[in-house]
Amino acid sequence: MQHGDKCDIWAGEGGHWFAKFKKGAIIFVPKAFKFTRTVAGQIPTGWAAGRYGIPDDIVAQTDRATLWALVSAAEALNASGITDPYELYQHMHPSDVGTCIGSGMGGVSSLAQMFKDRRDEKHVQNDIFQET
Amino acid sequence: MISNIFLLRLLMLHVQVHQYHGWVGQPPLNVCQWTGQNSRRCLVCLADPLKCCSKLIEPHFSATALQSLEIAADCILSGKAKVMLAGGYDDLSEEGSYEFAQMKATSNAETEFAMGREPTEMSRPATSTRAGVSRVLKSLQQSANISL
Question: What is the distance in angstroms between the Cα of A16 and the nearest Cα belonging to chain B?
């Protein structure tokens, strides 16, 4: 937190340092609070993308919403009786196969890491931006 | 030429109004969510009801899956593709949930429980007692399919 001229810092004896916060200094204090939106649809507890065959290193660095979409796409193919999507290309040109996946908002947990964890100097992967 | 420009302007206006209105609040079912007009008077509604009025059922934030299905169907019907994988997903965090609450876009669970409502009926946008939707992390699993 930058306090600018709202904070005095001076050296004391024996390697000690003193800081004096003056009127107008801002200090962040983490707090917990409750709010009234307690009903929502959620991903089932224990859901793990790795269980659907996605490699561990991909799971570790990919946003949960992206993983959810990946697994959902695989399930859509399976539900349609297509267990090997590449088989489609035996019957048609690759340009005849398309995807159309919409999203209003995705990657919010990565966004939180980008904005909060980076500021708090917690460990954040270097390519977090592309997950948002 | 003139009619082309007029259509373009109309579409631009449409998009601007759409961006302005967004998905805040729930208009009555016969009002176009994009223009705020009666959907019978909204030209885009008339031209393509699914594209425009699908947003009446739910705000567009969550309607991308339905729009994707329509675009996929269009691609197949027009011969641009033979197979389409279509659907949509949205992510929701506690921060997002809080901001939806600030906008009063979502229903207040405490109030709903006090009225004896079950979680399954807290989102009822097509009723006269609607009081905001409940956010659901949607996915392709619910909405996707393969069209051949």
Answer: 40
